Amino acid sequence: MTFRSLLFATLVSGLAALSVPPSRPPGDLRIFFRQTCAACHGLDGSATSPEGQRLKGRDFTSPEAMKGLTDADLETTIRKGLFFGMRMPSYGSQLSDADIKAMVRIIREARRGRPVDPTP
User: Fold this and answer.
1) Tell me: the pLDDT tens digits for 12-71?
2) Domain span holding position 45
3) CB 64: neighbour CB atoms within 10 A?
4) pLDDT per residue over 88-120, tens digit each?
């Protein structure tokens, strides 16, 4: 391997490492949910608050609202957002893959009246 190719490989791997956020500790993930998700989806995931209704947040507690959504669909929505980030922002640059999977797990467990707790 030449010096130039070694340097290029090192730069590419360094840039790739920078683009993947590290996983958050469980407490940080809980704070993230409360600060970024709860405004639309509510602390319990029901989206019943006036802001959730206005912004048309998905009700995670409703079997009808969640029907047909796979974990992969939810992961993609969290990672990339919806409607070019205008309806729901993308969080792929702020959450690791492990964090996104943890958020999907807690979304699946959301129950009306019980605060969502994204602790893995």
Assistant:
1) 444 444 456 667 665 678 788 888 898 889 989 999 888 888 888 889 999 999 999 999
2) 23-108
3) 7
4) 899 999 999 999 998 898 889 888 988 877 555
Residue given tokens 């190719």 in the structure block: 5
- What single-letter DSSP state applies at residue 2? -
For residue 26, give the amino acid letter. Answer: P
CA distance 37 to 94: 13
**Residue 114 resides in a domain:** no
Specify which residues 31 forms β-bridges with. Answer: none
| Residue 2: per-residue pLDDT | 57
Domain membership of residue 46 (yes or no) is: yes
For residue 16, being part of any structural domain is answered with no
The stretches of 20-117 forming alpha helices (DSSP H) are: 26-32, 38-41, 50-55, 63-66, 71-80, 97-108
- How many domains is the chain partitioned into structurally? 1
Say which CATH number the domain at 93 has: 1.10.760.10
The CA distance from 82 to 19, in Å, is 21
Rounded CA separation 107/98 (Å): 14
